[in-house]
Amino acid sequence: MPTSSSKNRDYLYTFLGVLTIVVGWQLLSMHYNRVLIPSPADTLRALFDIYSSGELIENLKISFNRQLIGLAVGTILGLVTGIMAGINRKLELIIQPLTRLLLAVPAIVFVVMAMVWFGMGSTMAIFLVSLLVYPIMHVNTVQGFKSIDSKLLEMGKVYRLPGIIKVKKIYLPGLTYSVVAGFSLATASSVRLTVMAELLGAREGIGQKIAISRAYLQIDNLFAWVLVLILIIVLLEWFIIRPLNKFSARWKENYQ
């Protein structure tokens, strides 16, 4: 287990890494035209402006709603079919080509298809996120079933354990690590997918604001919206993904 001093060193190195990026950014903005690379100060001013105008909160809500609904739908579908496929090998083989296809084809292809089917707007973005979150959750759930110790399953049969006891003592500990790992990946992916969908086919949201800033060469605004996106991903990492991974790691240790 890492000590407090080692954690402090880790935080220090992380801070130095961030500081290096900011200093490099400032140097580039001084070397090149600020129309192309605005300085950190210019970006923060633009960020304050979009916050003061109400654009930031309004578009955050829109993007968050799309991301959350798409993530929820894709996660639920992936869990349901993953559990069914984990129990039934034949069903796993039937669904496998679909999940491999969804994971192999570049996301941009599905964005174009969704725009054709649903037009521009929330439905298209939610569909895209759901569609591409689904295989992540399905595959990780199936892998969770495969990681369960067969000896434990055999022991459950020998001692004729009730179904609820099997679920609590065998299946849940075995599945938790893989499912949580899949959900962590799906959560991070859903943010990127939402912004990609909005960038190409929405009339509002963070992605659409990035597209407008690029079209009108409002590069300081573009950098400000990208900074917002980075902050969202960092917050997800620190307050959702890391705690979930720690939780699942404890479950895995107890299971082993």
Defining key terms:
MetI-like fold, mainly alpha, 256 residues, 2 domains, single chain
How are the SSEs placed, and which strands pair?
Layout: H1 4-31, H2 40-52, H3 55-87, H4 89-104, H5 107-118, H6 122-147, H7 150-158, H8 163-201, H9 206-215, H10 219-255
Descriptive report:
By secondary structure, the protein is mainly alpha-helical. It has two domains: 1-29; 39-255, Orthogonal Bundle (MetI-like fold), CATH 1.10.3720.10. It contains ten helices and no strands. The protein has helices at 4-31, 40-52, 55-87, 89-104, 107-118, 122-147, 150-158, 163-201, 206-215, 219-255. Helix 4 packs across helix 6 (122-147), helix 5 (107-118) packs across helix 6 (122-147) and helix 8 (163-201) packs antiparallel against helix 10. The longest helix is centred in the C-terminal third of the chain and has 39 residues, at 163-201. The radius of gyration is 22 Å and the shape is globular. The mean pLDDT is 88.
Strand content: under 5%
Give the CATH level 1 class of the largest domain: Mainly Alpha
The number of helical runs is: 10
Could you give a short account of the major beta sheet?
Answer: none
The CATH architecture name of the largest domain reads Orthogonal Bundle
Q: Give the overall form.
A: globular
Question: What radius of gyration results from the CA coordinates?
Answer: 22 Å
Q: Summarize model confidence as the mean pLDDT.
A: 88
Low-pLDDT parts are none
Distance between the termini: 18 Å
Number of strands: 0
Structural class: mainly alpha
CATH superfamily of the largest domain: MetI-like
What count of structural domains? 2
Percent of residues in helical segments? over 70%
